[in-house]
Every structure is written in C-alpha cells, then in structure tokens.
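Email to the structure team, subject: Cytochrome P450 model.

Hi all, the expression group asked for a predicted structure before they design truncation constructs. Nothing fancy, just the tokens so they can compare against earlier work. One-line instruction: predict Cytochrome P450, return tokens.
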Amino acid sequence: MLPGTLYYINQIHHRVTMTMRRSGGTFLYKGPWLANMDILSTVDPANVHYVMSANFLNFPKGPKFREMFDVLGDGIFNADLDMWRVQRKIARGLITHIRFHRFLLRTSKDKVDTGLINVLQHVSDRGSVLDLQDLFQRLTFDTSCILFTGCDPGCVSVDFPEVPFSKAMDDAEEAILVRHIMPEFIWKLQRWVGIGSEKKLSLASKTLDDIIGQYIAMKKEELVRTTKMQKKGHKKEDEDEEEEEKGCDLLTSYLRESITISDDNDTGRMGIKLDDDKFLRDMVMNLMIAGRDTTSSALTWFIWLVSTHPHIESKIRDELKTLIAPEEDREKWRVFKPEELKT
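Reply from the structure team: attached below.
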C-alpha cells in the first residue's frame, strides 16, 4: 500500500478521509513487509471510546511505542497501567485546581491582548498575507509554555522569530513521523551512526532538555526564595492573597505539591518524585505537545469552516454585536470575556 500512499501524498488527508468512509470507519493499513508497520486505524466513536476510555487498561502501549516516542521519556503519553493512572491522578488534580484556572484565564487573555491582536493589527495595516495555522501554533505554544512552566518563549511577535524551543519540538515530531514511515532497522541504524533524521532528533532532544531544564531550575530557585521569605516573615498576608488570586503555573504547582504528598502511597510505590528533574522534564514535554498541536489545529479548522460558510459567519457577527455597548468604539479590537459568551 506504500506506493499508493506516496502517490497521494499531496492529498493525504483527503485520501485518508475517503478510505475511512469506504471502510466504515476502521481500516487496516498494510505497510511493506520489512518495515513492520501494519497499522489498524479507526475513527469510529464507539471503537475510540472502547479503547481510550471503557477498556483503556486492556490496551497498553508497550515497549515498542515507548521506543518510537523515546523523546517523551516516562511522561503520561508513554506511561502504562499503574504509572499512567498515578500520573493522570496527579495532573488532573492540579489542572482542575482553582489556582491553575485563575492563572489560565489571566495569562491566556494577556497573550491575546498583548500578542495576537498586535500581530493581527500589524498584518492588517500592511495588507499582508498571513498563515493563520502558523500564527495559531505560535499562540498555543506560547500559552502552553506559560501555563506549564510560567515562562514566555515569545513566539507570537510581528517579526515571527524562530524560537529554539519551538523549532526543537518541530524537529522532534518530524523525526518521529519518519520513524513511522521508515523500516525500523534503518532508523535504528541512523540513530546508531548519528545521521539523517535521527541526528536531527538527537540535537532536538538536547535542546529540549537544556531549555526545560533551565525552566525547572528557575522555578526551584524561585520557590526556595519564596519559602525563605515566608519563614523569615518578610512576606505579608496581602501579598500571599494576591499571589493566590493570580494563580500559578503547573510546574510551580508540581513543586509545591511535592512537599505535601511526599508520603502518598501511590507516588511512593511507583517511585515518583514530583520534584525530580527527569520527572518534571517529561511532564512538561508531554503537556507541551498536548497543548500546542491539538488546540492550534482546532482553531485553524474552525476558522476555515467559518470562512467557507458566510451565513454562519454573519450570524456569529450579529450575535457578537449584541454584546457591544452602543457607546463602545466598534472599530477597535474587542476581546470578549467567557461569561459574556455564555448567554
């Protein structure tokens, strides 16, 4: 089937959609015999629910998956069974905490106000052509990095800079894709010799380790300073209340939580230490991939759907106009609050 795939490579998404429709939503892709890449694909909601939710523990990813995605380390995407369950329990508890929600709302709005709108205004003033998918990917990369590490890499800018952190993630994902296409013995040979896409992956992994490692070190130093100030009584109650109101990033939450659940049975039994640099690195890496690509793809797809359905766009505009007060300047950019859009 590989020749047919290569023939339609420029229309691969349309080809996959057509194949899935003809096969009823589930299709067995037969790759070259030497590549060991037979893949069962499904888009049937019932099958997805069965595998990913109802019987998730019956479908471990296994060592082959972890070897293919080794750049993710021991993070939640590579974890199985008890290790996956414990990591999910910890992450879910911290992500659903009101402290993280406050931080999410504040930082996301700030990035739109100070980043996205500035870029859109800059492009609009010059009448330039804009790749929205690239812009959305930059936006979600910045917001994800801020949410998970508290640091802004600055991808959203009018000069569209090349950010090492983002480029390293792109290179790593590209190399993993090549592993799915190339016969296993070839990419393993490339890894051993240090050439081709495997060399790119090795360099990308080092960059990711270095950058995320810097973020972790900064947060640990910051937490140590804060703790010392609290013990010495230099921090006032109103300052603590202000910090609580602003919320905090997920990396800080993990480090704070490491103090309070160090004796937890699950984390102790699985050997998980929330302040361990390797654990934190893998956590950040996995969540960054989850937060960047999925959201940017959804935003791009949404804009494409709206642009191809003018009557829907008109209805959205009319509804939004009812939320703008008569005295407001309708020519200025307006960022709506979540509660405004619930009506």
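The two ends are 50 Å apart (CA to CA). The longest strand covers residues 26-29. Ping us if the truncation boundaries need rechecking.
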